[in-house]
């Protein structure tokens, strides 16, 4: 059983092509975190523990006792928190473009890119895409809640080195060579901290999942799982 987890501002629909290609060989599931992809936030904040709760609820609804997980960006971080707190629920983990080194300064830098007024003025096409992706939820609210989540990670809610060292699951930390949001240094350091971690650099790959060729993504998933 393979569960694909989307990133911040994303939705399960971003994996549709990959699911179609993987389905002949894998039993693949996707889901939306609350507040994403049209799913109501139910008054809950964007928080790793809350997102882990979404995964546990999804697994219970589908009758899944244990899953392998691919997590893109934020989805990879959720997978790690799930593995730490509920190790029996997780098999193997593969992440792509997951930010692992959170500091107040780094979080503040990320949050600067989440101003809805700036996005609407400078990249209106992206604003309309977010609007359509998260409707009927307000895409601006999604941005604000994501910013709050990132600031929380930068100010004490992130996993520590000791937390990473306590996760014994097989974990493949992957990073696109052209990723401008996550560094190779942080990815390698955390991969080395895991007792059973490995790092892979993907040539020519950028951070946005939409810019990752589906054949490259599917090949990665087949290597990992």
Q: What is the compact description of this entry?
A:
Helices cover 47% and strands 15% of the residues. The protein is α/β, with parallel strands linked by helices and 225 residues long. The protein starts with a strand and ends with a helix.
Molecular structure report:
This protein has helices spanning 16-22, 48-62, 74-85, 104-111, 116-122, 124-134, 139-157, 161-165, 184-193, 214-224; strands spanning 2-5, 28-31, 67-72, 90-96, 171-176, 197-202. By secondary structure, the protein is of the alpha/beta class. The radius of gyration is 16 Å and the shape is globular. α3 (74-85) links the parallel β3 (67-72) and β4. The chain has one domain: Rossmann fold, CATH 3.40.50. The chain has a six-stranded parallel beta sheet, covered by helices on one side. The model has no long low-confidence stretch (mean pLDDT 97). It is built from ten helices and six strands, in the order βαβαβαβαααααβαβα.
Q: Mind sketching the topology for me?
A:
Layout: E1 2-5, H1 16-22, E2 28-31, H2 48-62, E3 67-72, H3 74-85, E4 90-96, H4 104-111, H5 116-122, H6 124-134, H7 139-157, H8 161-165, E5 171-176, H9 184-193, E6 197-202, H10 214-224
Parallel strand pairs: 1-2, 1-3, 3-4, 4-5, 5-6
């Amino acid at each position: 059983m393979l569960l694909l987890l989307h990133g911040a501002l994303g939705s399960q629909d971003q994996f549709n092509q990959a699911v179609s290609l993987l389905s002949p060989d894998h039993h693949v599931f996707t889901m939306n975190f609350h507040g994403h992809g049209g799913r109501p936030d139910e008054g809950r904040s964007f928080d790793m523990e809350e997102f882990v709760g979404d995964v546990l609820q999804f697994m219970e609804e589908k009758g899944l006792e244990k899953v392998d997980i691919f997590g893109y960006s934020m989805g990879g971080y959720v997978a790690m928190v799930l593995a730490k707190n509920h190790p029996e629920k997780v098999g193997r983990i593969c992440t792509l473009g997951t930010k692992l080194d959170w500091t107040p300064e780094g979080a503040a830098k990320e949050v600067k890119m989440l101003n809805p007024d700036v996005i609407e003025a400078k990249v209106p096409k992206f604003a309309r895409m977010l609007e359509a992706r998260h409707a009927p939820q307000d895409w601006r609210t999604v941005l604000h809640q994501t910013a709050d989540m990132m600031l929380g990670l930068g100010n004490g809610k992130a996993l520590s080195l000791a937390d990473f060292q306590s996760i014994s699951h097989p974990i493949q930390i992957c990073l696109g060579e052209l990723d401008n949001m996550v560094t190779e240094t942080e990815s390698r350091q955390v991969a080395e901290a895991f007792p059973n971690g490995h790092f892979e650099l993907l040539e020519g790959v950028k951070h946005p999942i939409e810019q990752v060729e589906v054949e490259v993504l599917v090949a990665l998933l087949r290597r990992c799982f």
